């Protein structure tokens, strides 16, 4: 029954109808709480009264609401009132792409602009595991400002069985005559036509059909009946775009053709790759550069190579990373980026092989486990090697590999594994050294330099066995100079944080800091025969660029990118191996009332989750570009409401009464703890001393805190401090940190128990190799341990510290396309947990032309 103006659905007031169809009515409404206009989609009465349909409607709304992206229509909420089930969405002003087309082609520039926006939207959805399955011009909306919004993301593969329509779906508004109905059928992929299972590549096919129509004004597949249209999808190819319109570049036609391949395996591997292809086209320097340049949207304008060659822009360089603009140093010629990988996934290490032409890298592609690959420039394929779970950290002059196997997290970016030797020809890797963060071959291949975790501290051994430097933080990216006299490395003051400085040290232990302090520093290599050190770092936020520093401390920028660069290696020809990371850290968890995990992250790098004892409140830290140089602490409830920013720093713990957050303020150094109220109240400084503070916990009664910290030049240990005042008291030996029991009697550290009054540890029975303690039960009689499986799955057990009895609490499936992060927290009753995962995409490039 239609709703009249003035009808109230909870806090929403109906203003006027917007449209209607078989799946329900859509109304303009007023959100009386937030004082904004919204759209409300109301289910038909026969569906609203069907419990199964109502349940599916809620699932679809939840799936759509998870897609927070500017090119996807936002779902604000859903509910039921007065026998009416409804979804609340943003109110869009403009017209659908079908109306925009009006039966004719769009200007090529405009079509590419819209296409890029569509691809960005579906790429974001695919990263969340959501497939649209019904892309067509009716489901693409163009706002009055030219912003593209994808509608009806309710057809999630996991949300509805194959063949079911979405209850969020909006009617196309087209008459139901045979010709127009065939238009809808004509956007299906071949696998949909055949009724076979589909994945994200079905959206790539449907996008290709829509893009073809935008460019040509013609339907790609069209017949006089359903059967003829579906037969065309299965067996026919549409006419070339270059024949239908002479103004369309051949490169665009090739992109559309690849989207429309009948076999999913022959299409673009991901929407991310498709987006790169479109962006590359906008910056192409090939034979059709002039015609392609004319189609680039104004908001993505680029300097074309012929303008640079003609000297139209003096001392300006533009480097293209698969079409994305890089602002590097002033130079006559820009660096050149040669893409080496073409799959969707994450890269964790890369090194030149002995010949300087081949590349060895470690990656986790799609749902496959992490393993080693080799690649050569000019070939789109990589050869998989026989080493799984390995990072390549160095290649000797003879071509022997140095690997770090099976890394396990200590804290954040501090992750250690087993150093091993291996060959490119295969065979078993031979273990060399345990608990290694990073390593490098000595120039003659006789041994290694390594950074490793021992005795609670990080040690730099040069060579292995000779300690030349120790850190209470951690040491990464160790690289030996070509003459073997010095080691360059990243010196991180805080365990787990990737802030750091670039330093060098000689065999006598004389250390010099050359550059820093960076908000993110990862990736180091010696270049130019040892006269420079190249590294990737960020002055602010997390978007790293490529720098060079001389041994006298002179720093210059080599490549600056809108993305996030990571240096793998530098070549003798002044080339570099760089991968571009488009990653984000997300927080997922299983909260009270949940049967599956869900995402409660916020900005681009949500990390360090901390839970209240009842699991209903979470404190977390944003460490990406949006958070600022000193990071930002947020608190949010698990009902999905927006987080509240508490201020700069790192959130360490929530008080037992849920009223306070123990906040680690990083600046000024050394880091100190501050109590910050979650509600009204004033912050209060807790520590003010020379200790560099790190992780912290409240006692069960909330009267004191336990924290890890270290004095200058000393190993870290645990301290206790009363919140009413006084000085901190050490409770563990130097080098022992770990997690304190709620009653304060014991500390769990590296599989052992330390009594607060006794420095002699006892092993925790029942803990298996590779498992890590992540928390204590409320009775202090059991610990929770996390086990990372080789497949990417995780298990959490309760282990009784007296008997070793193990109880499986959580079996956590692998998040597609994600790597488990180091941060994992669990409530004292073991029912609720939160953890970080890193998701995203990386592409590996060989960059040449970096010499000056």
Question: Which descriptors would you attach to this protein?
Answer:
single chain, Phosphorylase Kinase, domain 1, Transferase(Phosphotransferase), domain 1, 13 helices, 852 residues, Methylamine Dehydrogenase, Chain H, mainly beta, six-stranded antiparallel sheet, 4 domains, globular, 56 strands, seven-stranded antiparallel sheet
Task: Describe the protein in words.
There is one protein chain. This protein is mainly beta. The protein folds into 4 domains: 83 residues, Phosphorylase Kinase, domain 1, CATH 3.30.200.20; 188 residues, Transferase(Phosphotransferase), domain 1; 270 residues, 7 Propeller (Methylamine Dehydrogenase, Chain H), CATH 2.130.10.150; 146 residues, TolB, C-terminal domain (Neuraminidase), CATH 2.120.10. It contains 13 helices and 56 strands. The strands form 13 sheets. A 7-stranded antiparallel sheet has the order 17-18-19-20-21-22-23, with no helix packed on it. Strand 21 and strand 22 form a beta hairpin. Helix 4 runs antiparallel to helix 11 and helix 10 runs antiparallel to helix 11. It starts with 7 loop residues before the first strand and ends with a strand.
- CATH top level class name of the largest domain: Mainly Beta
Largest sheet: 7 strands, antiparallel
| Intertermini distance | 73 Å
State the helix count: 13
Q: Name the structural class.
A: mainly beta
Percent of sequence in beta strands? 35-45%
The side-by-side strand order for the widest beta sheet comes to 17-18-19-20-21-22-23
Count of distinct strands: 56
Give me the CATH superfamily of the largest domain. Peptidase/esterase 'gauge' domain
CATH architecture label name of the largest domain = 7 Propeller
Molecular shape: globular
What would you report as the Rg, rounded to the nearest angstrom? Answer: 29 Å
CATH topology of the largest domain: Methylamine Dehydrogenase, Chain H
């Amino acid at each position: 029954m239609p709703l009249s103006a003035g009808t109230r659905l909870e806090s929403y007031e109906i203003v006027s109808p917007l449209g209607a169809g078989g799946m329900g009515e859509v109304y303009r409404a007023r959100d009386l709480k937030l004082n904004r206009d919204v759209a409300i989609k109301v289910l038909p009465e026969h569906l609203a009264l069907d419990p199964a349909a109502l349940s599916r409607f809620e699932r679809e709304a939840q799936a759509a609401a998870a897609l927070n992206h500017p090119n996807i229509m936002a779902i604000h909420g859903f509910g039921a009132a007065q026998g009416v089930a409804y979804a609340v969405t943003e109110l869009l002003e403009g017209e659908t792409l079908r109306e925009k087309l009006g039966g004719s082609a769009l200007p090529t520039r405009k079509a590419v602009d819209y296409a890029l926006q569509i691809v960005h939207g579906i790429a974001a959805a695919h990263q969340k595991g959501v497939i649209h399955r019904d892309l067509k011009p009716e489901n693409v909306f163009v706002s009055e400002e030219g912003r593209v919004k994808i509608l009806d993301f309710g057809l999630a593969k996991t949300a509805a069985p194959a063949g079911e329509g979405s209850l969020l779906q909006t009617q196309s508004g087209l008459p139901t005559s045979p010709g127009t109905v065939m238009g809808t059928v004509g956007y299906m992929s071949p696998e949909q036509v055949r009724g076979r299972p589909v994945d994200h590549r079905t959206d790539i096919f449907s996008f290709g059909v829509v893009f073809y129509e935008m460019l040509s004004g013609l339907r790609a597949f069209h017949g006089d009946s359903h059967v003829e249209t579906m037969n065309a999808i299965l067996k026919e190819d549409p006419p070339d775009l270059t024949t239908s319109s002479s103004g369309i570049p051949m490169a665009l036609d090739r992109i559309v053709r690849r989207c429309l391949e009948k076999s999913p395996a022959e299409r673009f591997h991901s929407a991310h790759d498709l987006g790169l292809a479109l962006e590359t086209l906008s910056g192409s320097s090939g034979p059709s550069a002039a015609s392609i340049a004319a189609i680039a949207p104004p908001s993505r304008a680029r300097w074309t190579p012929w303008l640079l060659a003609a000297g139209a822009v003096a001392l300006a360089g533009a480097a293209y990373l698969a079409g994305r603009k890089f602002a590097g140093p002033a130079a006559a010629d820009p660096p050149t980026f040669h893409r080496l990988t073409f799959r969707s996934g994450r890269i964790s290490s890369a090194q030149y092989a002995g010949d300087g032409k081949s590349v060895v890298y470690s990656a986790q592609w799609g749902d496959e486990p992490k393993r080693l690959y080799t690649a050569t420039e000019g070939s789109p394929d990589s050869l998989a090697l026989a080493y799984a779970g390995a990072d390549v950290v160095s290649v000797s002059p003879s071509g022997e590999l140095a690997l770090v196997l099976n890394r396990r997290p200590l804290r954040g970016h501090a992750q250690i594994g087993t150093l091993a030797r291996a060959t490119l020809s295969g065979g078993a890797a031979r273990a060399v050294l345990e608990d290694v963060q990073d390593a490098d071959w000595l120039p003659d291949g006789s041994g290694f330099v390594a950074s490793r975790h021992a005795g609670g501290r990080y040690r730099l051994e040069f060579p292995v066995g000779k300690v030349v430097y120790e850190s209470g933080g951690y040491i990464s990216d160790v690289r030996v100079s070509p003459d073997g006299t010095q080691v360059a490395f990243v010196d991180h003051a805080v365990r787990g944080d990737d802030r750091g400085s670039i330093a060098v040290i000689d065999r006598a232990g004389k250390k010099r800091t050359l550059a820093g302090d960076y908000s993110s520093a990862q990736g180091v290599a010696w270049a130019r025969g040892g006269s420079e050190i190249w590294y990737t770092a960020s002055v602010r936020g997390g978007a790293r660029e490529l720098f060079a520093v001389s041994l006298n401390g002179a720093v210059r920028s080599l490549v600056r990118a809108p993305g996030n660069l990571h240096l793998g290696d530098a070549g003798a020809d002044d080339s570099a191996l760089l991968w571009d990371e488009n990653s984000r850290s997300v927080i997922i968890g299983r909260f009270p009332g949940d049967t599956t995990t869900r995402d409660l992250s916020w900005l681009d790098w949500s990390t360090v989750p901390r839970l209240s004892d009842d699991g209903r409140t979470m404190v977390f830290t944003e460490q990406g570009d949006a958070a600022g140089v000193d990071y930002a602490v947020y608190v949010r409830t698990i009902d999905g409401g927006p987080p509240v920013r508490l201020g700069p720093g790192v959130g360490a713990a929530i008080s037992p009464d849920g009223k306070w957050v123990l906040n680690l303020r990083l600046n000024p150094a050394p880091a100190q703890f501050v109590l910050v109220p979650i509600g009204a109240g004033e912050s209060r400084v807790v520590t003010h001393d020379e200790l560099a503070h790190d992780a912290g916990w409240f006692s069960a009664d909330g009267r004191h805190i336990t924290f890890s910290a270290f004095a200058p030049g000393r190993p870290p240990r645990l301290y206790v401090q009363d919140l009413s005042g006084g000085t901190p008291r050490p409770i563990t030996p130097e080098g022992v940190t770990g997690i304190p029991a709620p009653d304060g009697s014991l500390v769990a550290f590296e599989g052992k128990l330390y009594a607060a009054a006794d420095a002699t540890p006892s092993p925790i029975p029942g803990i298996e190799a590779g498992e890590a303690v992540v928390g204590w039960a409320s009775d202090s009689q059991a610990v929770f341990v996390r086990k990372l499986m080789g497949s990417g799955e995780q298990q959490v057990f309760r282990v009784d510290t007296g008997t070793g009895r193990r109880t499986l609490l959580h079996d956590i499936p692998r998040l597609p396309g994600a790597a488990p992060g180091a941060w994992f927290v669990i409530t004292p009753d073991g029912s609720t947990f939160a953890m970080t995962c890193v998701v995203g995409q990386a592409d590996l490039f060989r960059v040449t032309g970096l010499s000056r």
